[in-house]
Amino acid sequence: MIEKLLEEFKSRFGSEGDIRCYFAPGRVNLIGEHTDYNGGHVFPCALTMGNYAVARKRDDSIVRWYNMTYPDDGVQEADITKLAPNDNGIWYDYQQGVIWAFEKNGYHVPNGYDMVMAADIPAGSGLSASASIEEVAAVICRDLFNIDMTMVDCALMGQYSENQYNGMNCGIMDQFASAMGKKDNAIFLDTATLKYDYVPLNLKDEKIVITNTKVKHKLAGSAYNDRRRESETALADLQKVVDIKSLGDLDEAGFEKYKEAIKDPVCLKRAHHAVYENQRTIKAVEALKSGDIEAFGKLMNESHVSLRDDYEVSCKELDILAEEAWKLPGVIGSRMTGGGFGGCTVSIVKNDAVEEFKEKVGKAYTERTGLVAEFYIADAADGARRIDV
Ligand code: GLA
């Protein structure tokens, strides 16, 4: 992939000067969904799939960008001193947003750059293709202009830009996973404090299988922001009766004790999910650390049910994939992953059942929806970085 990008870069922008290569991954979240803006825990890992880029700095404030994944967009040109937020959500808006976010937060980007990029991750599939664009932009700026900042800062700039430039009120999970991923590990992140632990995914007998519904329902963005507001309303009600900073501060018993304070029944369901999902995530990581993969899988299944019934961010296609997976004896656990309303499920499947999984789940999915699912085996990988060629 990177050789193709280098070739494209040289033929478009010339082969002279200091041309550098970068990669930032997408992510899959194993458990802890819609908890990252509720002060809860998440447990994602970075993937081997993501966005590659080749870049060279310029002497003026112009950027020229070409994306081989979207050749019809042609070369996009912009002046980095004249960037303004918009919610179009096109690949170059995510790139621009990061430069804008750097400036807003005191990380000065002195010049523009020429860049060619390409993705090997499916866009709109809930695997954080957009966060990987943001993080590739962050590592490019950080590296090309020697900006003194950590990779956690890069994650925060990705989230800041998505919130403030692209109009999507996301939490920190996706950018954090893309920036901070570690090969063979998942990241147990407390989103209230940004404290994190790498947890080895020592799966000898199982594989992590991602199944793509190949649908993305329109309401995803607005429904996401609605869920966030509903959670915040529930929190405000609870704060009248108990001293908490976020829903993640409550465990199940605490929630049951104070839940009557939540006036709206819909907000009550949202908060129920946020609290219980956070506790499930803590328990799931404990189970994994103690080698109890069956317990981990059971918690994944419960997570799906809660996302479907209480948080209401699943959809018919995701439910069908999960249901079909649950029928198979070689499946340890299966759930929707990411924001929902389409995208992917994540399943833990016994090594010797993976082929059967693909065949049976794929067939049933097509029979029930008329669509063809796609399957990827997930390998936990390193985070965003400059790469040597
Ligand atoms: C999207 C957001 C994340 C997170 C998930 C749901 O991926 O970008 O911040 O909220 O949805 O867990």
Structural overview:
It is a single chain. By secondary structure, the protein is an alpha+beta fold. It has a domain at 2-200 and 381-387: Ribosomal Protein S5, domain 2, CATH 3.30.230.10. It is 41% helix and 23% strand. The protein has helices spanning 2-13, 91-104, 129-144, 151-164, 173-180, 220-238, 252-258, 265-289, 293-309, 316-326, 354-369; strands at 20-29, 41-42, 44-57, 62-67, 76-79, 113-119, 185-190, 195-200, 206-216, 331-337, 342-350, 374-378, 385-387. The strands form 3 sheets. The chain has a 6-stranded mixed sheet with strand order 5-4-6-3-1-13, with helices on both faces. A 4-stranded antiparallel sheet has the order 10-11-9-12. A 3-stranded antiparallel sheet has the order 2-7-8, sandwiched between helices. Helix 2 crosses helix 4, helix 6 (220-238) packs across helix 8 and helix 8 (265-289) packs antiparallel against helix 9. The longest helix is centred in the last third of the chain and has 25 residues, at 265-289. 50% of the residues are buried. The mean pLDDT is 97. The structure holds alpha-D-galactopyranose. Alpha-D-galactopyranose (GLA) is lined by residues 33-34, 36-37, 170-171, 173-174, 338-339.
- Give the topology string: H per helix, E per strand: HEEEEEHEHHHEEEHHHHHEEHEE
How can the largest sheet be summarized? Answer: 6 strands, mixed
Integer average pLDDT:
97
Number of helices: 11
Hetero groups in this structure are: alpha-D-galactopyranose
Low-confidence stretches: none
**Helix vs. strand class:** alpha+beta
Binned, the helix content reads 40-55%
CA distance, first residue to last residue: 11 Å
Tell the overall outline. globular
Strand portion? 15-25%
CATH architecture of the domain at 2-200 and 381-387: 2-Layer Sandwich
What is the CATH fold-level name of the domain at 2-200 and 381-387?
Ribosomal Protein S5, domain 2
Rounded to an integer, what's the Rg over CA atoms?
A: 21 Å
CATH class of the domain at 2-200 and 381-387: Alpha Beta
Number of strands: 13
**Strands of the largest sheet, in order across it?**
5-4-6-3-1-13
